[in-house]
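Hi again,

Forgot to attach this to my earlier email, sorry! This is the prediction with zinc ion bound. I've pasted everything inline since the attachment limit keeps bouncing my files.
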Amino acid sequence: MISHARALIYHSREDLRIAEVPLRPLTEGEVLVRIRVCGLCPGEIMDWYMAKKAPFTPGHELVGEVVAVGSGVTAFRGGERVVVHHHAPCGACRFCRRGDSVHCPTWRSTRLIPGGLSTYAIVPPPVVERDLLPIPDHVPDEAAAFTEPLATVVKALRRAGLREGDRVAVIGLGVMGLLHGMVALRWGAERVWGIERLPARREIAVRFGILPLSPEEAAERIREESEGWGADVVVVGPGSVEAIELGWSLAAPGGTLLLFTPTPPEARWPVDVHTLYFREIRVIPSYSAGPPEMREALALLSEGLPVESLITHRLSLEEAPQGYQAMRSYEALKVLVYPFR
Ligand SMILES: [Zn+2]
Ligand SMILES: [Zn+2]
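Structure tokens for the complex follow:
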């Protein structure tokens, strides 16, 4: 029986340590996974967000292998390669019945022990029952590691009401922005403009059929290329009022401004309600994702969505802090951590 895990502990932005963490025996309904790979999430370099959770073990984009099951678990017996979600809803409460997994109290209280950036993790019963997904044999670990981030994109574009023929603008062409562009095109968007200040990232976007624009030229070019109307769906990647303002200036009448990333708690956006009303702009936040989106994301990966070309760094657990550094300096796109490397 495995009694310890080696895990990354986040104390503060400058203080990330590797520690031996004791693992208690499994209780009813739990599963132990050996973690094969875990992606680093852009949310993990959002310092205000991390500070309120510290100290803890980050990592929620993981692929593992079931190595032990608690009593009462019948769906897994050991040896299965799985995508492990870090939260799962109860499936029965008022929020679950309305399809709002992320507001379910069970979703909010479930977590992996200790977390994804670890050699092993205990998976709680709600996740085992509702969001521990066997990976088809033809899907490699590195593609499967995109399931959770891709699920948040699936949810965001669904909430935005994306329709075939829509014109989409995506602000920010990091991994999440590129994934939004890829999925929007796959779902029939007429065109996707990608707005990004870094030329290197604009070049990468072209490979996926995204039309790159700098923030300075975005408003004028999008008007020119849309008979003056703007974008039907604007995905605001960065969690800043400045990015929301830019998105606001790009939305077509009847369009949707999708807020993908939280702003810090003190941020305020003074919105022109008069224009919002007469242009009928919908402002839609989208936070995380639940079991249906996880399944849809894994299906997209299984069909070959070309996500692996977004991987720029493959690191050991000890090197994970360098991965965060490379994300902060915009050198990295997707960073994958191999706990057993
Ligand atoms: Zn994430
Ligand atoms: Zn629920």
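The domain at 161-285 is CATH 3.40.50.720 (Rossmann fold). The radius of gyration is 20 Å.

That should be everything now.

G.
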